[in-house]
Amino acid sequence: MGQVTPALSAAAQGGSFNHIKRWRATLNNSENTSPNPVKRSLVLGGRGFIGTHLIDALLDQGHFVRCFDRPNVAPLGESHFNHPNFELCEGDFTSEAEVAKALEGCDVCYHLVSTTLPKSSNADPVFDVESNVVATIRLLNLAVKSGLRKIVFISSGGTVYGDPTQVPIPETHATDPACSYGIAKLAIEKYLALFHRLYGLDYTVLRLANPFGEGQRTYASQGAVAVFLGKVLRGETVEIWGDGTVVRDYIHVSDVVKALLASSAQSGEEHVFNIGSGRGHSLNEVLDAIERVTGRNASREYLSGRGFDVPVSVLDIERAKQSLGWAPFVSFDEGLERFAAWLLDNPE
Ligand SMILES: NC(=O)c1ccc[n+]([C@@H]2O[C@H](COP(=O)([O-])OP(=O)(O)OC[C@H]3O[C@@H](n4cnc5c(N)ncnc54)[C@H](O)[C@@H]3O)[C@@H](O)[C@H]2O)c1
């Protein structure tokens, strides 16, 4: 059974639990009629790569933040654990009772949980649908009951469109995912629209390109920038599937967080936004940039291409610029510099 616990470090040190009492007092204060009430945000998947950065930003903005994630997940970021406005709620996204507890008293929910990855999702579509789509429908039912004001969901700009017929890809492009992960993301988008229509639940979907940056695991099985950068810094040979001409849209994680924050305040007609840099880099260009930024040689080994990699995927981000008032700020090279500096300070 999931438990709402104070920050681990406070508990481990036998520290004060007053911050939890303050959180509870705020949640229970039904007479909070201030014109700018403090926002109470729930981050599902908050111990992951993007969630950790989002929580730091929400805390910086003065929000109360509850992080929901599985127990025993090694946190990528520790900075918020001692923050008085931070609360950790451990549980599994597939447990209705645990998600219900996490939602209590929250205004905005950022849904960042994914139980699957694009390339492995086809191995077990039933698991994908049950743990992502069905669990999200349960979340939406609970959100309606609890009076949640808004839900922000991260979808996938790299998989929902399938093989693009137009680049950069606008949100109006046909959707034709080639993997279960993309189908599940799209199904969740549709249920969000349905719950908005039926019950007025406000929502925003961010169709995210390829995020990279500080905190990302370099030993992971996805995230070309992180994997390549990690290998170059360790002096290992980089394996490239195909001839390195596959082009993707990479965005620094700080710009993703800005889009998430802008989404929570947005309330227009549009609900679905592409979030990327709007620019493409081939894998070869990524490696050239890594060499430039780190001053190290990237030893490259080219392997046979993978059939499922579409040649080019770059997102059209005009809608987000117009409706969210958001734009990417960090250039690819600057993002790489920040990430490389972080990796040198935080070796895995
Ligand atoms: N990283 C990318 O390349 C990328 C690209 C496009 C979209 N996205 C989406 O953005 C979101 C966040 O991505 P990320 O890179 O931060 O992922 P991540 O894997 O670092 O974080 C996801 C978090 O969800 C948690 N989680 C997974 N299953 C859970 C469960 N059953 N119960 C509770 N928690 C569970 C994990 O423990 C993890 O902390 C995901 O929805 C992902 O699909 C990511």
Topology:
Blueprint: E1 3-5, H1 8-12, H2 18-28, E2 40-44, H3 49-60, E3 64-69, E4 86-90, H4 96-103, E5 108-111, H5 125-146, E6 150-156, H6 180-199, E7 202-208, E8 210-212, H7 224-234, E9 238-241, E10 247-248, E11 250-252, H8 253-265, E12 272-275, E13 281-282, H9 283-294, E14 300-303, E15 312-313, H10 318-324, H11 332-345
Parallel strand pairs: 2-3, 2-5, 3-4, 5-6, 6-7, 7-12, 8-11, 9-14, 10-15
Antiparallel strand pairs: 1-4, 10-13
Helix pairs in contact: 3-8, 4-5, 5-6, 7-9, 7-11, 9-11
The structure holds nicotinamide-adenine-dinucleotide.
Nicotinamide-adenine-dinucleotide is lined by residues 45, 47-51, 69-70, 73, 92-94, 112-115, 154, 156, 208, 210-211, 222-223.
Descriptive notes:
The protein has helices at about 10, 20-30, 50-60, 95-105, 125-145, 180-200, 225-235, 255-265, 285-295, 320-325, 330-345, and strands at about 5, 40-45, 65-70, 85-90, 110, 150-155, 200-210, 210, 240, 245-250, 250, 270-275, 280, 300-305, 310-315. The protein has about 350 residues and is an alpha/beta fold. It has a domain at about 5-30 and about 35-215 and about 250-275 and about 310-320: 3-Layer(aba) Sandwich (Rossmann fold), CATH 3.40.50. The strands form 4 sheets. An 8-stranded mixed beta sheet has the order 1-4-3-2-5-6-7-12, sandwiched between helices. Strands 13-10-15 form a 3-stranded mixed beta sheet. The longest helix has 22 residues, at about 125-145. Mean pLDDT is about 90; it is low at about 1-25 and about 25-35. It binds nicotinamide-adenine-dinucleotide (NAD). The site of nicotinamide-adenine-dinucleotide has 23 residues, from helix 3, strand 6 and strand 8.
